[in-house]
Structures are given as structure tokens and as C-alpha cells.
UniProtKB/TrEMBL annotation:
It comes from Linum tenue. This is F-box/LRR-repeat protein 15/At3g58940/PEG3-like LRR domain-containing protein. Transmembrane segments: none annotated. Gene3D superfamilies: Ribonuclease Inhibitor (3.80.10.10). InterPro entries: FBL15-like, Leu-rich_rpt, Leu-rich_rpt_Cys-con_subtyp, LRR_dom_sf, LRR_FXL15/At3g58940/PEG3-like. Residues 455-544 form the F-box/LRR-repeat protein 15/At3g58940/PEG3-like LRR domain.
Length: 715
């Protein structure tokens, strides 16, 4: 092995002859021995080699060891249990004796000072090391740059001077106190300082021009941190429950996270490059923190600020030209918010449920949701880029100034105090709004609705659950309207919709929702007959709606056969050929919960060739359904308990729902016989359909893929 350069071995016994033989391996540069017994464990082992540069004896068992290697540069005796180590290594620059528990203070001192060129020393977990030993090492090893004295309870650094030190680790050193900072201050070259778990440490005040990284974790009595370093770029402070004050001056720090510092009350920052700050769960921070992060507060480049769950904040005001993102999630005590942040693009206010006054002037937000602030009463917004604003649930909002020239969507649902003057001002300053939701806004009246003429692009308007009695302002002001929702507008009279079906008002209207209204049967029939341009119509819960008899001949509305008519089902061949009138555009018809409907008839002459979905579920008194629609794909008759007669001429029907209907299997079988594209049939809880009927139903309609039954489910 005379040409051997690197040798690694372990887990055995290496006797004295082995180490004598090493001297003959002239090219050996690196020797690594791990978990081995050197000699017989009761003798001194000499290691002599003129060319060896790197030596590791890790977790080895030996009584004494003597090392004479004139070119040795790095030596590790980590976790080995020798009681004495004699070193003659004049060029050694890195020594690791960590966890060598049997080495005495004097032995450590002797070993270290015998290496005057030492630059890195790890003596962690050597519990007997004293300040006296460190003082002698400091005097002898003038080039020492890295020192790890972690878990050395006797080390306090009293009178220890290490001016060239760049890295110092003192984890769990019980002797480290605020007085130790004087010694650390002499290490003006220090770049890395770790003081984790120093339980007696109360104050750290350091002015170190080269310090880049500091760590203070689990320091139970730590109260005050004062750091000045132009190169400081990383600060780790965590789980210091007594920490009250922090002052940091740095030109290199870009990110600061001080999580869960429950008692932190004072924060002073002079950090010219700081961009991100996270103070989550710092629940003792007061309103004065706003000055720190506003212009002139010492953080001119701040872009992101997180103050989640800072529950002592009550009045928040930020004036910043750099801030892009702000999070105040869970700050339940905030009652006033004032943001003068022209570059602010994102703000999170979830949980700010006591907010009463809010001002966003100016901001760069594109969207804002304030529906989570139920106590908001005063609002000011100046946002040149905002396109979406949600105020849903702001029930006490009575004063709002909204200046958003690019706003296209405004949801003010349940803003019961919102009045006409506010709506008029908003319409004037936000002319591009195309979707306006005013559901449950009872204070909005005719004057406010007339102001909507300032919104030439308005296509969606929701006035559900309001006290409107007259829709004339809507018909005259919203000429481009495509969607109009009037759910539960119980004060609308029977002639309120006459302009729609008599005068051609709202020619662009496609979707109309009149659910839970009180319109009479004749008004509904006229609407169905004349508004052929509608694509979606909802009549859910209309108590005045009776039999749905729908037909047309020669362009005039005609009365179709009533409930008592003996008329048979419709003939597709006879009727589709005869129809010359243009087809209706209706695609979706919803009549859910119309308890007074007893019969639903849609013949081919109704010209509903586009109807694809028809929902009559929960119409509990519905007895007969007779539908002939070429493109109907979904028919829902669930919970129509009285249903006994079903006639279908719907060749493209794919889904039929009959859950909880009283219909028998013969009627269902006959109904689906001509539905050649039917894939899904739901007959759960139908008392007259038994499990054996499933095979008959599949036989009647071979295209079925899914049949749902309370007795048998197949797919």
C-alpha cells in the first residue's frame, strides 16, 4: 500500500503495528477511522506521519493518543473517548474535539495551544471547558476564525478577546449572559453568531460592521435586541416569550420574520433594503407599528407586510409608496383602516370583523372583498385599476365613495343601508360597470335606478329581495341588460312586466329570474308567450303559477288543452312540419317548488327547440307531464309526489330524475321508450317501482348507463 493516498476503515480493532506501518505509506494524505478500538484500549497510540494532511478518528476508543504529523491540516477526534491528546502539528488549522467528554480542561487547553496556526476549533459538548482555557487559546491562536463552544456550561467569555473571529456558536451555554456581549463586541470581524437556548441571556446589544447572520431561538429570558450592522442579512428570532423590544439597523437585510413573539411591543427598523416582513401572532404590537412601515419609517423598499393575528391593533394607517402586499388576517380589534399606498396590489382582511371605517386612497388593487367586514359603515376607495369590488354583507354601510374608473363588477348584496345618492355617485364615477348586484338593498329606489343610465355597459342586474314596485327605471335606463334577477320582489304588481312583453323593453335580455314572486298566472303566460328571446327563465316558488299550458299558432298566443282535456300526447311528425314561426331561444326553464302546478304541457307548436333543461322538482301537486322537445337533455321531476302520468317525446333526453314520485313502472317504461339517448334514470324512493322493474326499464331503453333506485343501484 505504499502508493495509497486515502484510507477509510472502522468498526474493528486497530493495534499498534497498524499505526507503525502507516509511516511506510509515504503517499498517504487522508486517514479516516470510524467507530474503532485503537490498540487494546489501555495504551497510548502514536500516529506519526510526515505527509498526512487530513486525519479523522471519530467515535474511537483509546486511552491516550499522540499525533506527530508536521503537515497535518485538519484533525477530528469527535465523539472519541480518549483522556489525553498530545498534538505536534504545527500546520494544523482545523481541530474538532466535539463531544470528547473525557478530555479535561487542561488537556483541551494543551492540545489547542500546541497548534498556533489554528483557524477553526470545535469544542462543543466539552462540558469542562473554562474561560481561562479560552483566554489562553485566544492569546496563542491569533488566527482563530471559527469557534464552536456550544453546550459548554462554564463558558461566559469573561475577558476573552478574539478579534479575528468570524463565526461563533454558543448554543445552550448557561454562562452566556448580557455581560458576555462586551467580549463578543471585540470580535469586530464576526459574521455569524448563534446564541440559541442561552436561557440566562436577557439583552443583546451589538454594533458589528461585518455581522451577516444571527440566531436567537428559545432564549426564555431574552428581552431586548439591538443590532447595528450594514451587512446583516439574516435574523432568526423565535420562541423568545419575554422579548419586548427590537431595534435593527442594516443595509443588507431583505427579509425579516418574527413569528409568535407574543410580548413584542416595540420594533424600530432602519433597513434600507428590507422588502418582506412577517410579524404573524405578534399580538402585543400596537398602532405605532404603522409608523415603522410607512414612508420615513426606515423601510423605504418594503414590498410585503404580514400582520396576521396582531390582535392589539385598533387603528391602522399606512402611507407607503413601495408596499405591494398587506395581510391583516385575524386582526379582530381593528376598527379603522387607512391605506395611502398607490402601489398596493393585494390586501387580505379576513377576520377583521370589527372594521367600521376603511379608506383605500389611492391603491393599485384590482379586486377587493369587504364582505367579511359586517360592521363597516364608512368606505372610501380610489383605485384606478380596480375591476371587481365585493361589499356583500356590509349591512350597516351607509356612506361609500367609490372612484374606480375601470370597475366592471360590483356586488353590494345585503347592503341594507345603501341609498340612492351613494348608488348615483358610484354609477357616475365607475362608468364601465357591467355587473351590478343589489340583492337585499331595500333602500335603493327609483332615483338610484335611474342613475344606472350612466352605465352603458350594464348587462347583469340583480334586484332580488328588494321592495321595488315599479320597474320602469330599469326598462328606461338599462337598455343593454342581458340578465335581470327579481327573486322575491313581492311588491311588484301584475303589470310591472308589461313593457317586456307588450312594448319590447330590454331587447337584449336573455336571462330572467322571477322566483318566489307574486305575479299572477296571466302575467306569467303573457311573458312565456311573447318573450321568445329569453334563454334562461326561473319561476321557482311562484305560488300563483298554475297549469303550464304552452302553445302558439300563426303567431298568436293560444290556449292549449287544459287539465280536463281528453287530448292525447303530441305528434312530432305532424307538428314540427307545420311550424313556420321562428323558434324560441329558451334553453333553461326552472319551476322548482311551484306547488300549484298540476299539469305541464309543452307541445311542438311551442317552438322550444333550444330547450335543454327543464326543472319541475318539488312541485308537489304536479300530476301530469306531457313534453315534446327535440333537444331537451335534462328533465328533473324529483319530489313531485303526485306525478302519475308522464309522456315524453324527447329524442335527445340524457338524464331523467323521478326521485320520490308516485308514478308506476308501466308509465315510466312507456315514457322512456322513445328516449333513445337516455343515459341516467333516477327512480329512488318511488314506491310503485320495485327492483325487478329495473330490467324492464333497461329493456325499454337500451341506452341507459346508470339507473338509481333505493332498492337497487346499477351503473
Amino acid at each position: 500500500f505504499r502508493n495509497l493516498e486515502t484510507l477509510t476503515l472502522g468498526r474493528g480493532q486497530l493495534g499498534d503495528p497498524f499505526f507503525h506501518a502507516l509511516a511506510e505509506c509515504n503517499l498517504l494524505r487522508s486517514l479516516n477511522v470510524n467507530d474503532a478500538t485503537l490498540g487494546n484500549g489501555m495504551q497510548e497510540i502514536p500516529i506519526n506521519h510526515d505527509r498526512l494532511q487530513h486525519l479523522q478518528l471519530i467515535k474511537c476508543r483509546v486511552l491516550r493518543i499522540s499525533i506527530r504529523c508536521p503537515e497535518l491540516q485538519t484533525l477530528s477526534l469527535k465523539r472519541s473517548n480518549m483522556g489525553q491528546a498530545v498534538l505536534s502539528c504545527p500546520l494544523l488549522h482545523a481541530l474538532d474535539i466535539g463531544s470528547c467528554h473525557k478530555l479535561s480542561d487542561a488537556a483541551i487547553r494543551s492540545a489547542a495551544i500546541s497548534c498556533p496556526q489554528l483557524e477553526s476549533l470545535d469544542m462543543s459538548n466539552c462540558s469542562c471547558v473554562s474561560d481561562e482555557t479560552l483566554r489562553e487559546i485566544a492569546q496563542t491562536c491569533s488566527n482563530l476564525h471559527i469557534l464552536d463552544a456550544s453546550y459548554c456550561p462554564n463558558v461566559s467569555l469573561e475577558s476573552v478577546r478574539l478579534p479575528l473571529l468570524t463565526e461563533l456558536r454558543l448554543h445552550s451555554c448557561e454562562g452566556i449572559t448580557s455581560a458576555s456581549m462586551a467580549a463578543i463586541s471585540y470580535s469586530y470581524m464576526l459574521e455569524v453568531l448563534e446564541l440559541n437556548n442561552c436561557n440566562l441571556l436577557t439583552t443583546v446589544s451589538l454594533d458589528l460592521p461585518r455581522l451577516q447572520r444571527i440566531s436567537l431561538v428559545h432564549c426564555r429570558k431574552f428581552v431586548d435586541l439591538n443590532l447595528r450592522s450594514v451587512t446583516l442579512s439574516s435574523i432568526m428570532v423565535s420562541n423568545c416569550p419575554s422579548l419586548h423590544r427590537i431595534s435593527i439597523t442594516s443595509n443588507s437585510l431583505k427579509k425579516l420574520a418574527l413569528l409568535r413573539q407574543e410580548n413584542l411591543t416595540t420594533l424600530a427598523l432602519q433597513c434600507q433594503c428590507l422588502q418582506e416582513v412577517d410579524l404573524t401572532d405578534c399580538e402585543s404590537l400596537t398602532n405605532s407599528i404603522c409608523e415603522v412601515f410607512s414612508d420615513g419609517g426606515g423601510c423605504p423598499m418594503l414590498r410585503s407586510l404580514i400582520l396576521d393575528n396582531c390582535e392589539s391593533l385598533t387603528t391602522v394607517r399606512f402611507c407607503s409608496t413601495s408596499l405591494l402586499s398587506l395581510s391583516l388576517v385575524g386582526c379582530r380589534a381593528i376598527t379603522s383602516l387607512d391605506l395611502i399606498c398607490p402601489c398596493l396590489e393585494k390586501v387580505c382582511l379576513d377576520g377583521c370583523d370589527h372594521l367600521e371605517r376603511a379608506s383605500f386612497c389611492p391603491v393599485a388593487l384590482r379586486s377587493l372583498n369587504l364582505g367579511i367586514c359586517p360592521k363597516l359603515s364608512t368606505l372610501r376607495i380610489e383605485a384606478p385599476s380596480m375591476v371587481s369590488l365585493e361589499l356583500k354583507g356590509c349591512g350597516v354601510l351607509c356612506e361609500a365613495s367609490i372612484n374606480c374608473p375601470l370597475l366592471t363588477s360590483l356586488d353590494a348584496s345585503f347592503c341594507s343601508q345603501l341609498k340612492d345618492d351613494c348608488l348615483s355617485a358610484t354609477a357616475a364615477s365607475c362608468p364601465l360597470i357591467d355587473s351590478l348586484i343589489l340583492m337585499s338593498c331595500p333602500s335603493v329606489g327609483s332615483d338610484g335606478l335611474y342613475s344606472l343610465r350612466c352605465l352603458p355597459n350594464l348587462t347583469v342586474l340583480d334586484l332580488s329581495y328588494t321592495f321595488l314596485m315599479n320597474l320602469l327605471p330599469v326598462f328606461q335606463s338599462c337598455l343593454q341588460l342581458k340578465v335581470l334577477k327579481l327573486q322575491a320582489c313581492k311588491y311588484l304588481t301584475d303589470d310591472s312586466l308589461e313593457p317586456l312583453y307588450k312594448e319590447g323593453a330590454l331587447p337584449m335580455l336573455q336571462e330572467l329570474d322571477l322566483s318566489y314572486g307574486t305575479l299572477c298566472q296571466s302575467a306569467i303566460e303573457d311573458l312565456l308567450a311573447c318573450c321568445t328571446h329569453l334563454t334562461h327563465l326561473s319561476l321557482n316558488g311562484c305560488v300563483n303559477m298554475h297549469d303550464l299550458n304552452w302553445g302558439c299558432s300563426s303567431g298568436q298566443v293560444t290556449e292549449l288543452p287544459t287539465v280536463n282535456s281528453p287530448r292525447a300526447s303530441f305528434s312530432l311528425e305532424d307538428n314540427y312540419a307545420a311550424i313556420e314561426q321562428p323558434n324560441r331561444l329558451l334553453q333553461n326553464l326552472n319551476c322548482v317548488g311551484c306547488r300549484n302546478i298540476r299539469k305541464a304541457l309543452i307541445p311542438p307548436m311551442a317552438r322550444c327547440s333550444h330547450l335543454s333543461s327543464f326543472n319541475l322538482s318539488l312541485s308537489t301537486n304536479l300530476k301530469e307531464v306531457d313534453i315534446a322537445c327535440l333537444n331537451l337533455g335534462v328533465l328533473n321531476l324529483s319530489n313531485c309526489y303526485a306525478l302519475v302520468i308522464l309522456k315524453l317525446q324527447c329524442p335527445r333526453l340524457t338524464s331523467l330524475f323521478l326521485q320520490s314520485c308516485n308514478i308506476n313502472e308501466e308509465a315510466v317504461e312507456a315514457a322512456i321508450f322513445q328516449c333513445n339517448m337516455l343515459e341516467t334514470l333516477d327512480v329512488r324512493f318511488c314506491p310503485k317501482i320495485i327492483s325487478i322493474s329495473m330490467f324492464r326499464l333497461r329493456g325499454a331503453c337500451p341506452s341507459l348507463k346508470r339507473v338509481f333506485s333505493s332498492l337497487l343501484s346499477t351503473s
